[in-house]
Design goal:
By secondary structure, chain A is mainly β. Chain A has strands spanning 4-7, 10-14, 19-25, 31-37, 44-49, 55-58, 61-65, 71-76, 85-92, 100-101, 105-110. In chain A, 0% of the residues lie in helices and 54% in strands. Chain A is globular and about 40 Å long. Chain B is globular. Chain B is 0% helix and 46% strand. In chain B, strands 2, 4, 5, 8, 9 and 10 form a 6-stranded mixed β-sheet that branches. In chain B, 34% of the residues are buried. Classes of the chains: A mainly beta, B mainly beta. The interface between A and B is medium-sized, with 24 and 30 residues.
Protein backbone atom coordinates (compact mmCIF):
# COMPACT_ATOMS: atom_id res chain seq x y z
CA UNK A 1 0.00 0.00 0.00
CA UNK A 2 0.90 3.66 -0.10
CA UNK A 3 3.36 4.92 2.48
CA UNK A 4 4.55 8.32 3.57
CA UNK A 5 8.12 8.86 4.72
CA UNK A 6 8.23 11.62 7.31
CA UNK A 7 11.41 13.20 8.63
CA UNK A 8 12.94 13.88 10.98
CA UNK A 9 11.53 11.38 13.48
CA UNK A 10 12.26 13.76 16.37
CA UNK A 11 13.65 17.22 16.96
CA UNK A 12 14.94 19.09 19.98
CA UNK A 13 15.07 22.84 19.47
CA UNK A 14 15.48 26.01 21.48
CA UNK A 15 12.49 28.27 22.00
CA UNK A 16 12.43 30.92 19.27
CA UNK A 17 14.06 28.74 16.62
CA UNK A 18 12.41 27.87 13.33
CA UNK A 19 11.49 24.25 12.55
CA UNK A 20 11.13 22.39 9.29
CA UNK A 21 9.82 18.88 8.67
CA UNK A 22 8.84 17.09 5.50
CA UNK A 23 7.04 14.18 4.01
CA UNK A 24 7.67 12.25 0.82
CA UNK A 25 5.73 9.58 -1.02
CA UNK A 26 6.49 7.14 -3.80
CA UNK A 27 3.07 7.87 -5.30
CA UNK A 28 0.98 10.93 -6.01
CA UNK A 29 -1.51 12.42 -3.57
CA UNK A 30 -4.13 15.02 -4.49
CA UNK A 31 -4.44 16.40 -0.97
CA UNK A 32 -1.80 16.88 1.71
CA UNK A 33 -2.68 17.57 5.32
CA UNK A 34 -0.70 18.37 8.44
CA UNK A 35 -2.00 17.39 11.89
CA UNK A 36 -0.66 17.92 15.41
CA UNK A 37 -1.27 15.46 18.23
CA UNK A 38 -0.89 16.28 21.91
CA UNK A 39 -0.54 13.50 24.52
CA UNK A 40 -3.81 11.72 25.17
CA UNK A 41 -5.59 13.58 22.39
CA UNK A 42 -6.58 12.90 18.82
CA UNK A 43 -4.80 14.67 15.94
CA UNK A 44 -5.89 18.24 15.24
CA UNK A 45 -5.85 19.60 11.69
CA UNK A 46 -3.33 22.41 11.18
CA UNK A 47 -3.17 23.00 7.44
CA UNK A 48 -4.82 21.46 4.36
CA UNK A 49 -3.30 21.71 0.86
CA UNK A 50 -5.28 20.97 -2.31
CA UNK A 51 -3.20 22.18 -5.27
CA UNK A 52 0.30 21.26 -6.42
CA UNK A 53 2.64 24.14 -5.60
CA UNK A 54 0.21 25.63 -3.08
CA UNK A 55 1.80 27.47 -0.16
CA UNK A 56 -0.50 28.04 2.82
CA UNK A 57 0.05 29.71 6.18
CA UNK A 58 -1.75 29.40 9.50
CA UNK A 59 -0.20 31.83 11.95
CA UNK A 60 3.40 30.79 12.51
CA UNK A 61 2.89 27.63 10.44
CA UNK A 62 3.54 27.42 6.71
CA UNK A 63 3.11 24.35 4.55
CA UNK A 64 3.64 23.63 0.87
CA UNK A 65 2.26 21.03 -1.51
CA UNK A 66 5.15 19.89 -3.70
CA UNK A 67 4.78 20.42 -7.45
CA UNK A 68 5.38 16.72 -8.10
CA UNK A 69 2.48 15.96 -5.72
CA UNK A 70 4.78 13.49 -3.98
CA UNK A 71 5.98 15.67 -1.13
CA UNK A 72 5.08 18.38 1.35
CA UNK A 73 6.85 20.34 4.05
CA UNK A 74 5.77 22.14 7.21
CA UNK A 75 7.65 25.06 8.73
CA UNK A 76 7.09 26.52 12.18
CA UNK A 77 8.61 29.92 12.82
CA UNK A 78 9.70 31.29 16.21
CA UNK A 79 8.81 28.13 18.14
CA UNK A 80 7.19 28.38 21.55
CA UNK A 81 6.77 25.75 24.31
CA UNK A 82 3.18 24.94 23.30
CA UNK A 83 4.43 23.77 19.90
CA UNK A 84 5.58 20.59 21.63
CA UNK A 85 3.82 17.52 20.28
CA UNK A 86 3.81 15.06 17.41
CA UNK A 87 3.25 16.40 13.92
CA UNK A 88 1.81 14.08 11.26
CA UNK A 89 1.59 14.51 7.54
CA UNK A 90 -1.26 12.78 5.75
CA UNK A 91 -2.15 12.27 2.13
CA UNK A 92 -5.36 11.47 0.32
CA UNK A 93 -6.11 10.60 -3.29
CA UNK A 94 -9.69 11.69 -3.77
CA UNK A 95 -12.90 12.79 -2.14
CA UNK A 96 -13.21 11.79 1.48
CA UNK A 97 -11.27 8.56 1.18
CA UNK A 98 -9.22 7.44 4.20
CA UNK A 99 -5.98 9.23 4.90
CA UNK A 100 -2.50 7.72 4.65
CA UNK A 101 -0.35 8.97 7.54
CA UNK A 102 3.35 9.42 8.07
CA UNK A 103 4.87 8.11 11.30
CA UNK A 104 5.15 11.56 12.79
CA UNK A 105 7.80 14.05 13.91
CA UNK A 106 8.10 14.44 17.67
CA UNK A 107 8.97 18.06 18.48
CA UNK A 108 10.47 19.11 21.80
CA UNK A 109 11.04 22.78 22.58
CA UNK A 110 13.61 23.77 25.20
CA UNK A 111 12.78 27.02 26.93
CA UNK B 1 -19.99 22.78 19.08
CA UNK B 2 -19.43 19.23 20.27
CA UNK B 3 -16.58 17.34 18.68
CA UNK B 4 -16.11 13.64 18.08
CA UNK B 5 -16.43 11.68 21.31
CA UNK B 6 -15.21 8.18 22.06
CA UNK B 7 -15.77 5.79 24.92
CA UNK B 8 -14.28 4.37 26.95
CA UNK B 9 -11.15 6.50 27.10
CA UNK B 10 -9.19 3.54 28.45
CA UNK B 11 -9.89 -0.18 28.32
CA UNK B 12 -7.86 -2.98 29.85
CA UNK B 13 -8.92 -6.47 28.89
CA UNK B 14 -7.62 -9.99 29.15
CA UNK B 15 -6.37 -11.83 26.12
CA UNK B 16 -9.20 -13.73 24.45
CA UNK B 17 -11.99 -11.43 25.59
CA UNK B 18 -14.16 -9.36 23.23
CA UNK B 19 -14.23 -5.56 23.42
CA UNK B 20 -16.50 -2.87 22.00
CA UNK B 21 -15.34 0.67 21.36
CA UNK B 22 -17.82 3.46 20.70
CA UNK B 23 -17.63 6.58 18.54
CA UNK B 24 -20.08 9.49 18.45
CA UNK B 25 -19.29 11.60 15.38
CA UNK B 26 -19.94 15.31 14.97
CA UNK B 27 -23.65 15.85 14.33
CA UNK B 28 -24.40 15.95 10.62
CA UNK B 29 -21.15 14.35 9.51
CA UNK B 30 -21.88 11.65 6.98
CA UNK B 31 -18.44 10.04 6.84
CA UNK B 32 -16.90 8.13 9.75
CA UNK B 33 -13.47 6.53 9.96
CA UNK B 34 -11.66 4.24 12.37
CA UNK B 35 -7.87 4.29 12.65
CA UNK B 36 -5.43 2.44 14.90
CA UNK B 37 -2.29 4.03 16.35
CA UNK B 38 0.32 1.72 17.78
CA UNK B 39 2.98 3.08 20.13
CA UNK B 40 5.29 5.49 18.30
CA UNK B 41 3.59 4.90 14.98
CA UNK B 42 1.38 6.83 12.62
CA UNK B 43 -2.29 6.15 12.17
CA UNK B 44 -3.35 3.01 10.34
CA UNK B 45 -6.70 3.03 8.52
CA UNK B 46 -9.16 0.34 9.60
CA UNK B 47 -12.65 1.02 8.18
CA UNK B 48 -14.65 3.84 6.57
CA UNK B 49 -18.40 4.51 6.48
CA UNK B 50 -20.00 6.98 4.07
CA UNK B 51 -23.73 7.54 4.29
CA UNK B 52 -25.70 4.44 3.34
CA UNK B 53 -22.97 2.99 1.16
CA UNK B 54 -21.30 -0.30 1.99
CA UNK B 55 -18.34 0.36 4.32
CA UNK B 56 -14.76 0.19 3.09
CA UNK B 57 -13.33 -2.59 5.26
CA UNK B 58 -10.04 -2.87 3.41
CA UNK B 59 -7.96 -1.83 6.43
CA UNK B 60 -9.28 -4.33 8.95
CA UNK B 61 -6.30 -6.52 9.97
CA UNK B 62 -8.24 -9.73 10.56
CA UNK B 63 -11.75 -11.16 10.74
CA UNK B 64 -11.68 -10.61 14.50
CA UNK B 65 -12.30 -6.93 13.77
CA UNK B 66 -15.71 -5.60 12.75
CA UNK B 67 -17.59 -2.33 12.92
CA UNK B 68 -21.14 -1.11 12.62
CA UNK B 69 -22.67 2.29 12.17
CA UNK B 70 -26.27 2.52 13.30
CA UNK B 71 -28.65 5.10 11.92
CA UNK B 72 -25.85 6.87 10.13
CA UNK B 73 -24.49 8.20 13.40
CA UNK B 74 -22.91 6.24 16.26
CA UNK B 75 -20.36 3.57 15.38
CA UNK B 76 -19.08 0.59 17.35
CA UNK B 77 -15.78 -1.15 16.64
CA UNK B 78 -15.71 -4.72 17.95
CA UNK B 79 -12.60 -6.79 18.46
CA UNK B 80 -13.22 -10.45 19.18
CA UNK B 81 -10.82 -12.77 20.98
CA UNK B 82 -8.38 -9.94 21.64
CA UNK B 83 -4.65 -10.54 21.29
CA UNK B 84 -1.76 -8.62 22.84
CA UNK B 85 -0.86 -7.14 19.46
CA UNK B 86 -4.29 -5.45 19.42
CA UNK B 87 -3.05 -3.09 22.15
CA UNK B 88 -3.10 0.41 20.65
CA UNK B 89 -5.02 3.67 20.62
CA UNK B 90 -8.14 3.41 18.46
CA UNK B 91 -9.11 6.74 16.92
CA UNK B 92 -12.37 7.70 15.31
CA UNK B 93 -12.81 10.61 12.90
CA UNK B 94 -15.77 12.11 11.07
CA UNK B 95 -16.25 14.51 8.20
CA UNK B 96 -18.78 16.04 5.88
CA UNK B 97 -18.77 14.53 2.42
CA UNK B 98 -17.30 17.33 0.37
CA UNK B 99 -13.98 19.02 -0.23
CA UNK B 100 -12.25 21.94 1.43
CA UNK B 101 -10.76 22.62 4.84
CA UNK B 102 -14.15 22.67 6.58
CA UNK B 103 -14.81 19.17 5.31
CA UNK B 104 -11.68 17.45 6.52
CA UNK B 105 -11.56 14.69 9.11
CA UNK B 106 -11.90 15.68 12.75
CA UNK B 107 -10.65 13.20 15.31
CA UNK B 108 -11.89 12.08 18.69
CA UNK B 109 -9.53 11.65 21.68
CA UNK B 110 -9.21 7.91 21.11
CA UNK B 111 -9.64 4.78 23.20
CA UNK B 112 -6.45 3.31 24.62
CA UNK B 113 -6.81 -0.48 24.57
CA UNK B 114 -4.46 -2.64 26.59
CA UNK B 115 -4.65 -6.41 26.24
CA UNK B 116 -2.97 -8.28 29.09
Amino acid sequence: GQQLNQSPQSMFIQEGEDVSMNCTSSSIFNTWLWYKQDPGEGPVLLIALYKAGELTSNGRLTAQFGITRKDSFLNISASIPSDVGIYFCAGRNSGNTPLVFGKGTRLSVIA
Amino acid sequence: GAGVSQSPSNKVTEKGKDVELRCDPISGHTALYWYRQSLGQGLEFLIYFQGNSAPDKSGLPSDRFSAERTGGSVSTLTIQRTQQEDSAVYLCASSLFSTGTSYEQYFGPGTRLTVT
